[in-house]
């Protein structure tokens, strides 16, 4: 292994980062759509049962090098950010 | 929009979650490889300049619904977890 290998591995990391970014934003868009549907139906935005189901599916499918607790922590941050996104949209809708 | 739409949107979210999970774990594997290279070369594990560069590339490419600060926060959590992964491997290597 040389410094060149290190550089190649770092390029791979950057590539994966951008793929994760793309998926995060795609996820954000779907979450916004869900927010609109819930708003129209008068459903409360946060659904702990649904969040638990999502997390369970992630746990079932996890087989990577990260600790399960780490993966759960990262996804909980993503869930929290998504909920904030719905709240922001709701505020904006009220201001229109 | 009906409850059925909501269910379809949730399925899409689950699909994206699993894609993010796959990428996270792929990223974890590359990070482990980087840890091995650094170990052999006697380079310190944490490189703030490199982390800044990674984050800058993410910022440049961000164009989704999330606030930039949110995206940065999520990636910093991923970076932190990756560093922990390298530390764990180092500890395990010392124990062998």
Automatic annotation (TrEMBL), chains A, B:
Keyword Transferase among record annotations: yes
Keywords, alphabetical: Transferase
Keyword Transferase: yes
Domain Chorismate mutase: 1-90
Protein name per its UniProtKB record: Bifunctional 3-deoxy-7-phosphoheptulonate synthase/chorismate mutase
UniProt source species: Virgibacillus kekensis
Upper classification of the organism: Bacteria, Bacillati, Bacillota, Bacilli, Bacillales
Range within the parent protein: 1 to 96 of 358
């Amino acid at each position: 292994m040389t410094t060149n290998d290190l550089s190649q591995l770092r390029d791979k990391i950057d590539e994966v980062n951008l793929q994760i970014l793309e998926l995060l934003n795609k996820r954000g868009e779907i979450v916004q759509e869900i927010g609109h549907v819930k708003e129209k139906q008068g459903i409360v935005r946060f659904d702990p049962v649904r969040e638990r189901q999502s997390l369970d599916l992630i746990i079932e499918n996890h087989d990577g090098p990260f600790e399960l607790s780490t993966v759960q922590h990262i996804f909980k941050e993503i869930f929290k950010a998504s909920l904030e996104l719905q709240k922001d949209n709701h505020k904006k809708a009220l201001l229109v």
